[in-house]
Specification:
single chain, alpha/beta, five-stranded mixed sheet, two-stranded parallel sheet, globular
């Protein structure tokens, strides 16, 4: 098994490959697992990137995608937004990212903590937005419970530092 890491900007991060998710220079069906932590929000053409990811992932393979889930629905930043390495943010994704992933061909399960899943199911039990940029009320209003699975109980969440729980959302995307 070969393990490689890639990045678009090799001056900001260390990677084995320089990759542009909008045009991935890898053979079709050549990758079993892709991890994309906090990358997709920095890609200008989401549809093209998801199509390329689907193309390079082998049947039965998976992508674990993480993006900040700030709102219940996808929005374009009103003001220019950059993350710590001065990478521009093109999208603040919401639950409707599920639709985009499914349109690209993936089977999608959204992995969250048990506590967050409970809050989504019964919003009155959850917190209010606290000024950290996450609009909790919008997250619960637009939640897609049919796609959400809780994985970490309260003790595991505390041990692993998954707090606040709405900061930790992963889209598991399986290529059939």
């Amino acid at each position: 098994m070969v393990r490689l890491s890639g990045d678009f900007d090799l001056s900001a991060h260390v990677g084995d490959l320089q990759l542009d998710l909008q045009q991935v220079d890898l053979a079709a069906a050549s990758v079993d697992v892709v991890l994309t932590p906090h990358v997709l929000e920095h890609v200008p053409d989401t549809k093209r990137a998801l199509g390329e990811l689907f193309r390079v992932i082998a049947p039965g393979g998976r992508m674990y995608l993480q993006v900040p889930l700030l709102h219940g629905d996808t929005r374009v930043p009103v003001e220019p937004e950059f993350h710590a390495d001065n990478t521009p943010v093109f999208f603040n994704f919401g639950w409707d990212l599920i639709d985009q992933l499914e349109a690209a061909g993936f089977e999608v399960t959204v992995l969250v903590t048990d506590r967050f899943r409970s809050w989504l199911a019964t919003p009155a039990t959850g917190p209010s937005s606290n000024g950290d940029g996450f609009l909790v009320e919008s997250l619960t209003e637009h939640a897609r419970l049919d796609s959400v699975t809780g994985l970490a109980d309260e003790q595991q969440s505390v041990q692993l530092g998954f707090l606040p729980p709405y900061h930790f959302v992963t889209w598991e995307c399986r290529r059939p």
